[in-house]
Amino acid sequence: MARLFLKKILIVTTLLLYGCGGGSSSESVIPAPIPTPAPTPAPTPEPTPAPTPAPTPEPTPAPTPEPSPDCTDSNLPNTNYCNVEYEGLNREFYAYIPDNVGTTVTSTPLLFNLHGYRGQANDFSGLTGFQSIAEAEKFIVIYPQGSILPSSGEPHWNDSGWSTESPANDISFISSLIDWASSEYQIDLNRVYATGKSNGGKMSYHLACNIGNRFAGIASVGGSITPNTYSNCSPSHPISIIHIHGDNDTVVPYEGNWRSTSVPDMMAYWKEFNNCQAQNVITLPDVNNDGDGGSIYQETDCLNDVKVELFLMEGMGHDWPTDLNQYDIIAADEIWDFLSQFDINGKINF
Predict the structure, then answer these.
(1) CA–CA distance from 37 to each of 34, 69, 262 (Å)?
(2) How many CB atoms lie within 10 A of CB 179?
(3) Cα–Cα–Cα angle for 67, 130, 327, nearest 5°?
(4) Distance (Å, rounded) from C-alpha 227 to C-alpha 261?
(5) How many contiguous H segments (helices) and E segments (strands) does the chain have?
(6) CA 122 to chain CA centroid, nearest Å
(7) What pLDDT sits at residue 20?
């Protein structure tokens, strides 16, 4: 009995061993799973360096002010001779100062009177005849001297025409003289005017077109606007214009040439700019009985009640009228009678 029990145990043990590993080699063995590797951490980026601050620019130095004119008494009554180094050029001018101006008389009008090409300021001051009028009416007259044009060696004004090779900035120079007169004599900045003959008349128009905000009126004798200034003229406000021209002027022809806009075209420009709506024509009497008279063409009903006038003188050449025995008008009288009616805002209501 015990032997039979042991035999059964042996059989069961053998079967168990066979089932656990002793079977055929064709059966698959399930491999153990491969562990998933841990993810590689992303590299930590280097910190972005802060931007380098831009260097603080050095402050722009203020422009060096131009020196003030040095003035002395001249050999002319009530007239100072002044010179100043301006933008690298030695500049000169004469200033007629009426009695009591700058002391008991303040808020004084200022008139610039510009000589022609090859001209001299001191000669022009004697020719044009403004001193007696200025003394009576109490306004200052400045006679600037044009600088030397290198190509000719002659005095000139850089009027943006044939003188484009000029080194002179005459617009800036004359503007600086307004500032000087204002600081020295308490001028009325609303009553600054410019006049001139030939090249000086052209320069007067050049001032009106470029710094018109500083001028109340312009007068020219025998000097039309240059074509370049005419094409680029940009006045800042309505401005009164008086122009005197001879119909026999061969230097600055009434009909114009490559250096000068025709007088009719120029006057039409000022008429249109000032929006003038009416015209009067006045016949000038033949005062000296030489058979030649003239006509005044007045453009009226303009903005701010300004005016535009042309004196067209019969038989007159390239001249500044000074004597009724030779001409039928005196230019200085006509110019001041006209300009003195206006300030920078238009017609003055006295």
Answers:
(1) 9, 93, 98
(2) 14
(3) 140
(4) 5
(5) 8, 15
(6) 29
(7) 38
Buried b (16+ CB within 10 A) or exposed e, 18-35: eeeeeeeeeeeeeeeeee
Token pair, residue 326, equals: 């030779």
Measured over the CA atoms of residue 215, residue 219, residue 220 and residue 225, the dihedral's sign is positive
pLDDT digits (tens, 9 = 90+) for 180-222: 999 999 899 999 999 999 999 999 999 999 999 999 999 999 9
Report how far residue 246's alpha carbon sits from residue 327's, in angstroms, rounded to the nearest whole number: 11
Residue 152: partners with Cβ closer than 8 Å, 6 or more residues away: none
Sheet of 108-114, strands arranged across:
70-73, 79-86, 89-96, 140-144, 108-114, 187-197, 217-221, 240-246, 308-313, 294-300, 278-284
Report residue 311 as tokens: 């004196």
State the chain's mean pLDDT as an integer.
Answer: 87
The predicted pLDDT at position 61 comes to: 57
Q: In this structure, which amino acid lies at residue 160? A: S
Strands 70-73 and 79-86, how do they pair? antiparallel
The whole-angstrom separation of Cα 209 and Cα 308 is 15
Measured CA to CA, the distance from residue 169 to residue 89 in angstroms comes to 10
- Kindly list the structural domains of the chain, giving each domain's residue range(s) and its CATH number in brackets, ordered by start: 70-347 (3.40.50.1820)
Give 246: exposed, middle or buried? Use CB within 10 Å, 0-12, 13-18, 19+: buried
Q: Residue 261 — φ and ψ, nearest 5°?
A: -70, 145
Residue 323 neighbours by CB under 8 Å, 6+ apart: 330
Which conformational region is residue 270 in: left (phi greater than 0), alpha (psi within -120 to 50 degrees), or beta?
A: alpha
Q: Which pair of structure tokens corresponds to residue 247?
A: 């119909």
Structural contact between residues 110 and 64, judged by C-beta atoms closer than 8 angstroms: no
